[in-house]
């Protein structure tokens, strides 16, 4: 049976840390579905369509990656795509408590779906979408924080 993992997040925008987690997940699973949440609560800088385009551009050369947008419960989305594993990234200890609570919540909704926590390489551990967004507000350098294809899209949007 094909092992499908779902990697949900806002990806506003996708960073090298996210990309690293996707690559790591591909070493463990047959297919990785990257799911961009609408996340209106977070007031994203980029529209859902722009975020999906950035994820597609960053992962276009990777086999067995699909990108979808969503606005429903993560476990329901997993069911829709036959995913049995949720991927979550951990950068620092500060992420752990929130991610653990989220993992327990998802498990309480469906105990057949496992959550797997993956760490990006150390060089990406400080990178977050919020850091990238802050730099973009001040026209700061971001090319070392996002995939090259994403950087091109960010520059085209200026």
Give the name of the CATH superfamily.
Answer: HUPs
Instruction: Record the strand order, biggest sheet.
Output: 3-2-1-4-5
Report the span from N to C terminus. Answer: 45 Å
The percentage of residues in β strands lies in 15-25%
CATH topology: Rossmann fold
How does the helix and strand content classify structurally?
alpha/beta
- Please work out how many helical segments DSSP would assign: 6
- Identify the CATH architecture: 3-Layer(aba) Sandwich
**Helix proportion of residues, in percent?**
40-55%
Shape: globular
Low-confidence stretches: none
- What's the β-strand tally? 5
Features:
158 residues, five-stranded parallel β-sheet, 6 helices, 42% helix, alpha/beta, Rossmann fold, 5 strands
Descriptive overview:
The protein starts with a strand and ends with a helix. The radius of gyration is 15 Å and the shape is globular. The chain has a single domain, classed as HUPs (Rossmann fold, 3-Layer(aba) Sandwich). Strands 3-2-1-4-5 form a 5-stranded parallel β-sheet, with helices on both faces. Strand 1, helix 1 and strand 2 form a beta-alpha-beta unit. It is an alpha/beta fold and 158 residues long.
What can be said about this structure in brief?
The chain is α/β, with parallel strands linked by helices and 158 residues long. It is built from six helices and five strands; from the N terminus they run E-H-E-H-E-H-E-H-E-H-H.
Please outline the helices and strands:
Layout: E1 4-9, H1 16-26, E2 31-37, H2 48-59, E3 65-70, H3 74-80, E4 85-89, H4 93-109, E5 114-118, H5 129-137, H6 148-157
